[in-house]
Amino acid sequence: MGLFGDNAVSFWMEDLTGILERFPLLECPHKQDFFAIYSVEQAEGDIYIDNQKIKLEPQKVIVVRPRCISNININKAAKGKLICFTEDFFSLRYNNNILHHFSFLEREALPYIRLNDTQIARWETLQLFVDSEFKTKGKETGKVLRSYLNILLFELERLYNPLGTPKEHSLRQEKIQLFQKLIDQNFKEKKLPSDYAAILNVSPNYLNKMCKEETGLTAGDLIRKQIVLEAQRLLLYTTDTINEIADKLGFENVSYFVTFFKKQANVTPEQFRRTEK
């Protein structure tokens, strides 16, 4: 979050007006380690999240999760807010597992929410309270901002999932969430389900059974899916050679990487880079 300045440590809020002039790095593809919520009142342009193009439109809230690659193209006169926070900031008061209860923060969730006139009025009112607290920095401002943030997240959950409430995850589901987080952090060195089963203190067979029942994919499938996603990011957003990408992803040789990628994506790395760019 240091791209917003030395004072941006775990929570940050900023107007969208002229944001690229103040923070030009946002225009370049980058991987961030924090959540970002773009609340658009009025804007022209697009935001890309892992190569998914999302149009910037009035009354749209866009969520960028940590470890995604994103960049934004937005006009100077845009209006709205950007709220950024780390998982650690939220978990100082609320158990960080609570973040997994919000369906709009899940891996496969749509990264945006459209608001109607009534919803946008309520949402903007809530943002005013957060903005005022962030700027005034009164007594115990961190605690107050965490409380406001919790309210904002629940409000987004209601908007994203109006027919239900935030999911109550079982212990088994929490373990799957932890497994997926561990994959994000360790997939370069650990590529076998047994590696993660040992960390999670379960047998490889039980880990595989949990994954299959909860996600429809095996533990190995989830690991391979993450490796392919990271490979696609490197192919699209860097000029690294295929050899360099294979090395960065922990493959012993490039031929094994090319075979692995083609089997998972149905195209070679070179074909993917050529057709997707």
The largest sheet is: 5 strands, antiparallel
Shape: globular
Low-confidence stretches: none
Strand content: 15-25%
Structural class: alpha+beta
* Largest sheet strand order: 1-8-3-6-9
Tally of helical runs: 11
How confident is the prediction overall: mean pLDDT?
Answer: 89
Span between N and C termini?
28 Å
* Overall strand count: 9
* Rg calc: 20 Å
Elements, N to C (H/E): EHEEEEEEEHEHHHHHHHHH
Into which percent range does the helicity of residues fall?
40-55%
Question: Would you kindly provide a written description of the structure presented here, covering whatever features stand out?
Answer:
By secondary structure, the protein is α+β, with helices and mostly antiparallel strands. It contains 11 helices and 9 strands. The chain has a 5-stranded antiparallel sheet with strand order 1-8-3-6-9. It has a 4-stranded antiparallel sheet with strand order 2-7-4-5, with no helix packed on it. The longest helix has 20 residues. The chain starts with 10 loop residues before the first strand and ends with a helix.
Short description:
The protein is of the alpha+beta class and 277 residues long.
Topology:
Elements: E1 11-15, H1 19-22, E2 30-31, E3 35-42, E4 45-49, E5 52-55, E6 60-64, E7 69-74, E8 79-85, H2 87-91, E9 112-114, H3 117-136, H4 141-160, H5 171-186, H6 193-200, H7 204-215, H8 219-237, H9 242-248, H10 254-265, H11 269-276
Antiparallel strand pairs: 1-8, 2-7, 3-6, 3-8, 4-5, 4-7, 6-9
